[in-house]
Write a structure and sequence with these properties.
heterodimer, A: about 180 residues, mainly alpha, B: about 270 residues, 11 helices, elongated
Chain lengths: ~180, ~270
């Protein structure tokens, strides 16, 4: 079978891995995969990437394509795992990278907690669009919904994240004042 | 919280949620191991499952072929019997066949029906398997009609599973895991030495790793750590040469970026 036009050369797995592993790691984590299962799920993601790399046509950005795979693999994984009651994760349970100031690390972790408080679809929308920088059109493709739905989810998610962070700030101020 | 503050929080989140270099390397090592073992990864919802389709097509083909084999075996007998049926008997009292008594009393011109078929067809052995070789067993059915005295109806051939397929070859995962653990042990020792400002100890651990696992899964990480250890011991020129050689040897290593930074990255750590 011949292709209609010339295709861009297919990158090899190690290049794709190097460039997108951190992104896949974050997306998988925010899709509700437990921290200790993330390495295995990320491996699964890149096994699928390897298998489907010849089919990647370059129409969507590679990141969006990988995000779709991350979502599918994470959903598969979660189906196989006994659902547990949602719990507020303890801020600071992980260790900061050596070259990252503690305050900044805590800010990042706090946002992660705020994101985990959102519904999965709202969380994925804000993570992919606002944090990872994908276009709403790509996010709509990944999630299989219309662009308007993505905008609506984004609006709700942003508001909830803002409320969460402001509430946390007020709580700290009250604590320090007392 | 205003927009710039929120953007800053996003950036902090990306940094704090990124995997460490060691995690990246370990996931890559595991990924390579699974790729070498021939794993394809999980199938996603809605994904074209060529493998499953192949299985379904094989089973359907087996069923159709088995049905055809039975038809081919039975039809000539039916047709043959029809043509070889005894001629209309003019002597009703001949009664050389098992017709009911009332029929024997009918007119001598009555055409008697052919005798019921008393052949039993032994169904062909059909092997249901993924391998296309199973078609061979269908193409040449070993069905050999056997005559039987008992007036049994022709048995319909029905595909049945023969012996279960042989178990797949054991994947040598256990040994690989063991060697990976050993490799990790040496590299962890080297990292520990580096964090304790002991580059000589780190180099010794790395030499041990190289002696036991010259081309191990974690060899790229070893070379990166070697460069760090050389930098830490002040042997900048040798570190640069080692980094260049390492990049030339494995240009797709996940450590290339770090190797390119050379002693700069160790100085900033």
């Amino acid at each position: 079978m011949e292709h209609a036009g010339p295709r861009a050369p297919i990158p090899d797995l190690s290049t794709v891995y190097r460039e997108h592993v951190a992104f896949a790691w974050r997306v998988v984590r925010r899709c509700g995969v437990d921290a200790d299962a993330v390495p295995d799920v990320v491996q699964d993601v890149f096994l699928v990437v390897r298998r489907r790399l010849p089919d990647y046509d370059g129409r969507a950005p590679m990141q969006a394509w990988i995000a779709g795979i991350c979502r599918g693999v994470a959903l598969n994984h979660r189906r196989g795992v006994q659902r547990r009651a949602r719990r507020l994760r303890v801020v600071g349970e992980a260790q900061p990278p050596s070259d990252m100031p503690l305050e900044r690390f805590e800010l990042g972790r706090t946002l992660a907690v705020a994101l985990d408080e959102l519904e999965v679809e709202q969380r994925l929308a804000i993570v992919l669009a606002d944090i990872e920088g994908l276009s709403p059109a790509d996010v709509a493709d990944i999630m299989g919904v219309s662009r308007n739905t993505v905008y609506s989810r984004l609006r709700l998610a942003r508001q909830k994240v803002r409320d969460f962070l402001q509430g946390l700030g007020r709580g700290r101020a009250t604590k320090e004042g007392a | 919280m205003n927009a710039p503050e929120l953007r800053d929080a996003y950036a902090a989140y990306r940094e704090s949620e990124a995997p460490s270099e060691a995690e990246i390397a370990e996931v890559w090592a595991g990924l390579e191991r699974r790729v070498h073992a021939g794993e394809l990864g999980p199938w996603l919802p809605g994904e074209r499952r060529s493998r499953s389709r192949w299985l379904v097509a094989t089973v359907a083909a087996v069923a159709v072929a088995a049905g055809l084999a039975v038809l081919v075996a039975v039809t000539p007998e039916l047709v043959g019997r029809a043509f070889e049926a005894p001629p209309p008997s003019r002597d009703a009292d001949a009664a050389s066949f098992d017709a009911p008594a009332e029929r024997r009393t009918q007119s001598a011109t009555t055409i008697e029906p052919p005798r019921p078929i008393t052949r039993t067809i032994v169904p062909p052995r059909v092997v249901v398997d993924d391998a296309p070789a199973s078609y061979e067993s269908i193409a040449e059915p070993s069905a050999t009609p056997e005559l039987s005295d008992a007036p049994q109806p022709p048995a319909l051939a029905r595909p049945h599973r023969s012996e279960p397929p042989p178990p797949r070859e054991e994947e040598p995962v256990a040994t690989k895991d063991t060697s990976l653990d050993d490799e990790l042990r040496w590299l962890r020792a080297a990292r520990r030495s580096l964090s304790e400002q002991d580059p000589a100890g780190a180099l010794a651990s790395l030499d041990e790793h190289a002696r036991h696992f010259a081309d191990g899964v974690l060899a790229p990480e070893r070379r990166m750590l070697e460069v760090q250890a050389l930098c830490a011991s002040g042997r900048y020129e040798l570190a640069t040469q080692t980094a260049e050689a390492s990049i030339a040897q494995d240009p797709h290593s996940p450590w290339v970026a770090k190797l390119k930074r050379g002693c700069t990255s160790s100085a900033t750590k």
